[in-house]
Specification:
single chain; alpha/beta; Rossmann fold; 2 domains; 7-stranded parallel β-sheet; 6-stranded parallel β-sheet; globular; Glyco_trans_1; transferase; glycosyltransferase activity; Glycosyl transferase family 1 domain-containing protein
Length: 375
Protein backbone atom coordinates (compact mmCIF):
# COMPACT_ATOMS: atom_id res chain seq x y z
CA UNK A 1 0.00 0.00 0.00
CA UNK A 2 1.29 3.44 -0.97
CA UNK A 3 0.27 6.30 1.37
CA UNK A 4 0.66 9.87 0.13
CA UNK A 5 1.10 12.70 2.65
CA UNK A 6 1.19 16.50 2.35
CA UNK A 7 4.26 17.21 4.49
CA UNK A 8 4.69 20.96 3.97
CA UNK A 9 3.67 22.04 7.47
CA UNK A 10 6.53 19.94 8.90
CA UNK A 11 9.09 21.35 6.48
CA UNK A 12 9.86 24.33 8.73
CA UNK A 13 12.68 24.95 11.18
CA UNK A 14 10.57 26.58 13.91
CA UNK A 15 7.60 24.24 14.20
CA UNK A 16 4.62 24.99 16.41
CA UNK A 17 1.13 23.57 16.59
CA UNK A 18 0.20 21.91 13.30
CA UNK A 19 3.85 21.87 12.20
CA UNK A 20 4.86 19.81 15.22
CA UNK A 21 1.86 17.51 14.73
CA UNK A 22 2.78 16.78 11.09
CA UNK A 23 6.45 16.30 11.97
CA UNK A 24 5.63 13.69 14.62
CA UNK A 25 3.25 11.89 12.26
CA UNK A 26 5.98 11.70 9.61
CA UNK A 27 8.48 10.42 12.17
CA UNK A 28 5.99 7.75 13.22
CA UNK A 29 5.34 6.67 9.64
CA UNK A 30 9.08 6.62 8.94
CA UNK A 31 9.57 4.22 11.85
CA UNK A 32 7.09 1.64 10.51
CA UNK A 33 8.97 -1.45 9.33
CA UNK A 34 6.12 -3.18 7.52
CA UNK A 35 7.09 -4.14 3.97
CA UNK A 36 3.44 -3.73 2.98
CA UNK A 37 3.52 0.03 3.64
CA UNK A 38 5.19 2.67 1.50
CA UNK A 39 5.06 6.42 2.18
CA UNK A 40 5.40 9.25 -0.30
CA UNK A 41 5.63 12.78 1.13
CA UNK A 42 4.77 15.69 -1.17
CA UNK A 43 6.58 19.02 -0.68
CA UNK A 44 6.95 22.43 -2.33
CA UNK A 45 10.54 22.77 -1.12
CA UNK A 46 13.52 20.49 -0.57
CA UNK A 47 13.14 18.69 2.82
CA UNK A 48 15.07 20.30 5.67
CA UNK A 49 17.65 18.24 7.52
CA UNK A 50 15.47 17.49 10.55
CA UNK A 51 12.85 15.63 8.50
CA UNK A 52 13.14 11.82 8.38
CA UNK A 53 15.76 10.56 5.94
CA UNK A 54 14.38 9.07 2.71
CA UNK A 55 14.77 5.33 2.21
CA UNK A 56 13.27 2.54 0.12
CA UNK A 57 9.92 2.79 1.95
CA UNK A 58 9.78 6.52 2.69
CA UNK A 59 10.38 9.03 -0.11
CA UNK A 60 9.89 12.72 -0.94
CA UNK A 61 8.43 14.28 -4.08
CA UNK A 62 9.35 17.96 -4.51
CA UNK A 63 7.56 19.94 -7.21
CA UNK A 64 5.89 23.26 -8.06
CA UNK A 65 4.66 25.74 -8.95
CA UNK A 66 4.38 27.03 -5.38
CA UNK A 67 1.43 29.43 -5.86
CA UNK A 68 -1.84 27.56 -5.24
CA UNK A 69 0.23 24.41 -4.79
CA UNK A 70 -2.54 22.50 -2.98
CA UNK A 71 -5.20 23.38 -5.55
CA UNK A 72 -3.11 23.16 -8.73
CA UNK A 73 0.31 21.49 -8.59
CA UNK A 74 -0.62 18.74 -6.14
CA UNK A 75 -3.81 17.50 -7.85
CA UNK A 76 -2.03 17.47 -11.22
CA UNK A 77 0.73 15.33 -9.73
CA UNK A 78 -1.76 12.95 -8.11
CA UNK A 79 -3.77 12.62 -11.33
CA UNK A 80 -0.90 11.92 -13.71
CA UNK A 81 1.76 10.20 -11.62
CA UNK A 82 2.66 6.60 -12.34
CA UNK A 83 3.07 6.11 -8.56
CA UNK A 84 -0.52 6.83 -7.60
CA UNK A 85 -1.14 6.46 -3.84
CA UNK A 86 -3.85 4.17 -2.49
CA UNK A 87 -4.78 6.89 0.00
CA UNK A 88 -3.84 10.54 0.40
CA UNK A 89 -3.57 12.23 3.82
CA UNK A 90 -3.41 15.95 4.44
CA UNK A 91 -2.81 16.93 8.09
CA UNK A 92 -4.25 20.36 7.22
CA UNK A 93 -7.73 21.60 6.31
CA UNK A 94 -7.11 21.53 2.57
CA UNK A 95 -7.52 18.56 0.24
CA UNK A 96 -6.34 18.84 -3.39
CA UNK A 97 -9.17 19.64 -5.76
CA UNK A 98 -10.19 17.20 -8.52
CA UNK A 99 -7.93 14.47 -7.18
CA UNK A 100 -9.13 10.90 -7.91
CA UNK A 101 -7.36 9.54 -4.82
CA UNK A 102 -9.49 8.78 -1.71
CA UNK A 103 -8.43 11.24 0.96
CA UNK A 104 -8.31 11.80 4.71
CA UNK A 105 -7.88 15.24 6.29
CA UNK A 106 -7.27 16.73 9.73
CA UNK A 107 -9.08 19.68 11.31
CA UNK A 108 -7.58 20.93 14.55
CA UNK A 109 -10.32 23.40 15.49
CA UNK A 110 -12.99 25.72 14.09
CA UNK A 111 -11.75 28.96 15.60
CA UNK A 112 -12.14 30.65 12.21
CA UNK A 113 -15.89 29.95 12.37
CA UNK A 114 -16.51 31.10 15.93
CA UNK A 115 -13.99 33.97 16.01
CA UNK A 116 -13.84 35.25 12.40
CA UNK A 117 -12.93 38.77 13.53
CA UNK A 118 -9.64 37.44 14.88
CA UNK A 119 -8.41 36.37 11.42
CA UNK A 120 -7.05 38.25 8.45
CA UNK A 121 -9.57 38.42 5.60
CA UNK A 122 -7.45 36.43 3.15
CA UNK A 123 -6.82 33.61 5.64
CA UNK A 124 -10.47 33.59 6.71
CA UNK A 125 -11.75 33.21 3.16
CA UNK A 126 -9.36 30.36 2.48
CA UNK A 127 -10.17 28.57 5.73
CA UNK A 128 -13.91 28.83 5.22
CA UNK A 129 -14.24 27.88 1.57
CA UNK A 130 -11.40 25.40 1.13
CA UNK A 131 -12.26 23.59 4.35
CA UNK A 132 -15.93 23.35 3.36
CA UNK A 133 -14.96 21.73 0.06
CA UNK A 134 -12.48 19.39 1.74
CA UNK A 135 -14.96 18.21 4.38
CA UNK A 136 -17.37 17.08 1.66
CA UNK A 137 -14.63 15.31 -0.27
CA UNK A 138 -12.86 13.56 2.64
CA UNK A 139 -13.59 9.95 3.48
CA UNK A 140 -12.62 10.59 7.11
CA UNK A 141 -11.78 13.67 9.16
CA UNK A 142 -9.24 13.42 11.97
CA UNK A 143 -9.34 15.82 14.89
CA UNK A 144 -7.61 16.20 18.25
CA UNK A 145 -10.35 16.49 20.88
CA UNK A 146 -13.95 15.49 21.53
CA UNK A 147 -14.73 19.20 21.70
CA UNK A 148 -13.45 19.74 18.15
CA UNK A 149 -15.32 16.66 16.91
CA UNK A 150 -18.62 18.01 18.26
CA UNK A 151 -17.97 21.39 16.63
CA UNK A 152 -17.15 19.79 13.25
CA UNK A 153 -20.21 17.52 13.33
CA UNK A 154 -22.54 20.36 14.33
CA UNK A 155 -21.23 22.98 11.92
CA UNK A 156 -20.57 20.89 8.81
CA UNK A 157 -23.53 18.52 9.36
CA UNK A 158 -21.50 15.35 8.88
CA UNK A 159 -22.07 11.95 10.43
CA UNK A 160 -20.34 11.42 13.76
CA UNK A 161 -18.69 8.29 12.36
CA UNK A 162 -16.90 10.40 9.74
CA UNK A 163 -14.93 12.30 12.40
CA UNK A 164 -12.28 10.42 14.40
CA UNK A 165 -10.64 11.80 17.56
CA UNK A 166 -6.94 10.98 17.92
CA UNK A 167 -5.11 12.82 20.69
CA UNK A 168 -1.66 14.21 19.85
CA UNK A 169 1.28 14.15 22.24
CA UNK A 170 4.29 16.23 23.27
CA UNK A 171 8.02 15.68 22.85
CA UNK A 172 8.73 13.80 26.09
CA UNK A 173 12.44 13.81 25.29
CA UNK A 174 12.39 17.45 26.40
CA UNK A 175 9.21 17.88 28.39
CA UNK A 176 9.74 15.87 31.59
CA UNK A 177 10.92 16.44 35.13
CA UNK A 178 14.43 15.09 34.70
CA UNK A 179 17.01 17.13 36.54
CA UNK A 180 18.71 19.95 34.69
CA UNK A 181 21.39 21.86 36.57
CA UNK A 182 20.33 25.15 38.08
CA UNK A 183 23.46 26.64 36.56
CA UNK A 184 22.29 25.75 33.04
CA UNK A 185 18.79 27.10 33.64
CA UNK A 186 20.12 30.27 35.24
CA UNK A 187 22.43 30.89 32.32
CA UNK A 188 19.53 30.50 29.88
CA UNK A 189 17.29 32.84 31.89
CA UNK A 190 20.05 35.43 32.17
CA UNK A 191 20.36 35.46 28.38
CA UNK A 192 16.75 36.71 28.27
CA UNK A 193 17.30 39.14 31.18
CA UNK A 194 14.97 37.17 33.46
CA UNK A 195 16.20 37.86 36.98
CA UNK A 196 13.17 37.08 39.21
CA UNK A 197 10.35 34.62 39.69
CA UNK A 198 8.11 34.61 36.65
CA UNK A 199 4.76 33.57 35.25
CA UNK A 200 4.91 31.88 31.85
CA UNK A 201 2.78 32.04 28.71
CA UNK A 202 3.58 29.95 25.61
CA UNK A 203 1.84 30.41 22.28
CA UNK A 204 1.73 32.32 19.01
CA UNK A 205 1.05 36.03 19.47
CA UNK A 206 -2.45 36.36 18.07
CA UNK A 207 -5.83 37.57 19.40
CA UNK A 208 -7.26 34.11 20.10
CA UNK A 209 -4.62 33.53 22.77
CA UNK A 210 -6.14 36.35 24.88
CA UNK A 211 -2.75 37.81 25.78
CA UNK A 212 -4.08 41.32 26.38
CA UNK A 213 -6.33 40.11 29.22
CA UNK A 214 -3.41 38.10 30.59
CA UNK A 215 -1.32 41.29 30.66
CA UNK A 216 -4.15 43.14 32.42
CA UNK A 217 -4.43 40.33 34.99
CA UNK A 218 -0.67 40.42 35.54
CA UNK A 219 -0.85 44.19 36.10
CA UNK A 220 -3.57 43.70 38.73
CA UNK A 221 -1.44 41.11 40.50
CA UNK A 222 1.51 43.45 40.60
CA UNK A 223 -0.60 46.24 42.06
CA UNK A 224 -2.26 44.07 44.71
CA UNK A 225 0.61 41.79 45.72
CA UNK A 226 3.28 42.45 48.30
CA UNK A 227 5.72 40.83 45.89
CA UNK A 228 6.48 43.37 43.14
CA UNK A 229 9.48 41.56 41.75
CA UNK A 230 7.95 38.79 39.65
CA UNK A 231 7.82 39.00 35.86
CA UNK A 232 5.65 37.77 33.00
CA UNK A 233 7.50 35.85 30.28
CA UNK A 234 5.72 35.47 26.94
CA UNK A 235 7.24 32.80 24.71
CA UNK A 236 6.13 32.54 21.10
CA UNK A 237 6.54 33.92 17.63
CA UNK A 238 4.49 36.77 16.21
CA UNK A 239 1.36 35.62 14.43
CA UNK A 240 -1.11 38.27 13.34
CA UNK A 241 -2.86 41.31 14.83
CA UNK A 242 -0.22 41.35 17.56
CA UNK A 243 0.50 45.09 17.71
CA UNK A 244 -2.25 45.62 20.28
CA UNK A 245 -0.33 43.36 22.67
CA UNK A 246 2.74 45.60 22.68
CA UNK A 247 0.54 48.66 22.85
CA UNK A 248 -1.09 47.32 26.03
CA UNK A 249 2.34 46.75 27.61
CA UNK A 250 3.29 50.36 26.92
CA UNK A 251 -0.09 51.64 28.12
CA UNK A 252 0.33 49.87 31.48
CA UNK A 253 4.03 50.84 31.70
CA UNK A 254 5.12 47.23 32.04
CA UNK A 255 8.06 47.28 29.63
CA UNK A 256 10.45 46.27 32.43
CA UNK A 257 8.17 43.56 33.82
CA UNK A 258 7.13 41.66 30.67
CA UNK A 259 9.65 39.81 28.54
CA UNK A 260 8.96 38.63 24.98
CA UNK A 261 11.39 35.91 23.99
CA UNK A 262 10.11 35.12 20.50
CA UNK A 263 10.22 31.50 19.39
CA UNK A 264 12.43 29.18 21.44
CA UNK A 265 13.41 25.58 20.80
CA UNK A 266 11.99 22.78 22.93
CA UNK A 267 15.11 22.31 25.06
CA UNK A 268 14.96 25.93 26.23
CA UNK A 269 11.17 25.88 26.48
CA UNK A 270 11.34 22.94 28.88
CA UNK A 271 13.66 24.96 31.12
CA UNK A 272 11.15 27.82 31.17
CA UNK A 273 8.43 25.39 32.28
CA UNK A 274 10.65 23.92 35.00
CA UNK A 275 11.46 27.27 36.56
CA UNK A 276 8.14 29.16 36.15
CA UNK A 277 5.89 29.87 39.12
CA UNK A 278 3.05 28.69 36.90
CA UNK A 279 2.04 28.39 33.26
CA UNK A 280 -0.99 30.35 32.04
CA UNK A 281 -2.97 29.71 28.85
CA UNK A 282 -6.09 31.90 28.95
CA UNK A 283 -7.08 31.22 25.33
CA UNK A 284 -10.53 31.99 24.03
CA UNK A 285 -10.48 28.86 21.89
CA UNK A 286 -8.20 25.83 21.51
CA UNK A 287 -8.58 22.59 19.61
CA UNK A 288 -6.27 20.90 22.12
CA UNK A 289 -3.68 23.14 23.78
CA UNK A 290 -0.36 21.28 23.65
CA UNK A 291 1.46 23.71 25.99
CA UNK A 292 -0.91 22.64 28.78
CA UNK A 293 0.42 19.08 28.54
CA UNK A 294 4.01 20.26 28.10
CA UNK A 295 3.80 22.28 31.32
CA UNK A 296 2.23 19.39 33.23
CA UNK A 297 4.94 17.00 32.07
CA UNK A 298 7.58 19.42 33.41
CA UNK A 299 5.94 19.72 36.84
CA UNK A 300 4.69 23.25 36.25
CA UNK A 301 1.29 24.22 37.74
CA UNK A 302 -1.23 25.16 35.03
CA UNK A 303 -3.86 27.88 34.85
CA UNK A 304 -6.05 27.68 31.75
CA UNK A 305 -9.45 28.63 30.36
CA UNK A 306 -12.71 26.91 31.20
CA UNK A 307 -13.81 27.00 27.54
CA UNK A 308 -13.39 24.96 24.33
CA UNK A 309 -11.22 21.83 24.61
CA UNK A 310 -9.15 22.99 27.57
CA UNK A 311 -11.29 21.49 30.38
CA UNK A 312 -11.26 18.18 28.45
CA UNK A 313 -7.46 18.17 28.24
CA UNK A 314 -6.70 19.59 31.69
CA UNK A 315 -9.49 17.86 33.69
CA UNK A 316 -8.93 18.56 37.40
CA UNK A 317 -5.17 18.93 36.89
CA UNK A 318 -5.29 22.71 36.35
CA UNK A 319 -7.01 25.80 37.71
CA UNK A 320 -9.76 26.65 35.22
CA UNK A 321 -10.63 30.33 34.84
CA UNK A 322 -13.06 32.46 32.86
CA UNK A 323 -10.86 33.90 30.06
CA UNK A 324 -13.09 36.96 29.72
CA UNK A 325 -12.58 38.03 33.35
CA UNK A 326 -9.18 39.44 34.23
CA UNK A 327 -9.92 39.15 37.96
CA UNK A 328 -10.52 35.42 37.54
CA UNK A 329 -7.28 35.00 35.59
CA UNK A 330 -5.37 36.97 38.25
CA UNK A 331 -6.84 34.90 41.08
CA UNK A 332 -5.96 31.66 39.30
CA UNK A 333 -2.37 32.80 38.78
CA UNK A 334 -2.06 33.77 42.44
CA UNK A 335 -3.32 30.39 43.69
CA UNK A 336 -1.10 28.41 41.34
CA UNK A 337 1.94 30.52 42.23
CA UNK A 338 1.67 31.11 45.97
CA UNK A 339 -0.74 28.58 47.49
CA UNK A 340 1.62 25.68 48.26
CA UNK A 341 -1.13 23.13 48.83
CA UNK A 342 -2.73 24.00 45.50
CA UNK A 343 0.64 23.95 43.74
CA UNK A 344 1.52 20.50 45.06
CA UNK A 345 -1.87 19.11 44.03
CA UNK A 346 -1.64 20.55 40.51
CA UNK A 347 1.90 19.31 39.99
CA UNK A 348 1.12 15.74 41.10
CA UNK A 349 -2.05 15.48 39.04
CA UNK A 350 -0.47 17.13 36.04
CA UNK A 351 2.45 14.71 35.93
CA UNK A 352 0.04 11.77 35.83
CA UNK A 353 -2.20 13.40 33.23
CA UNK A 354 0.69 14.08 30.85
CA UNK A 355 1.59 10.37 30.77
CA UNK A 356 -1.60 9.34 28.95
CA UNK A 357 -0.67 11.13 25.71
CA UNK A 358 1.51 9.14 23.32
CA UNK A 359 2.82 9.84 19.80
CA UNK A 360 3.21 6.14 18.99
CA UNK A 361 -0.46 5.60 19.77
CA UNK A 362 -1.40 8.69 17.74
CA UNK A 363 0.53 7.47 14.68
CA UNK A 364 -0.80 3.93 14.99
CA UNK A 365 -4.42 5.10 15.16
CA UNK A 366 -3.88 7.51 12.25
CA UNK A 367 -2.43 4.72 10.15
CA UNK A 368 -5.39 2.44 10.93
CA UNK A 369 -7.80 5.09 9.62
CA UNK A 370 -5.75 5.51 6.44
CA UNK A 371 -5.67 1.76 5.79
CA UNK A 372 -9.44 1.48 6.12
CA UNK A 373 -10.01 4.34 3.65
CA UNK A 374 -7.50 3.15 1.02
CA UNK A 375 -8.46 1.70 -2.36
Amino acid sequence: MLIGVDGNEANLENRVGIGQYVYQILKGFHGKNSEDLLFQVYLKEKPINSLPVANSRFSYKIFGPKPFWTQFALPLRLCFTTERPNIFFTPTHYLPRFSPIPSVMSIMDLSYIFFPHLFQKKDLWQLKFWTSYSVKKAKKILTISQFSKSAIVDYYKVEKSKVVVIYPDIEHKYFNIDKISNQKINKMLESYKITNNFILFVGTLQPRKNIIRLIEAFSKLLNSSADKSFQLVIVGKKGWLFNHIFQKVRELKLENKIIFTGYVHDEELAMFYRRALCFVLPSLYEGFGLPVVEAMACGCPVVTSNVSSLPEIALDCAILVDPYKTDDIAEGIYKASYDNKTRDRLIARGLNRAKIFNWDKCCKETLEVLKKCAI
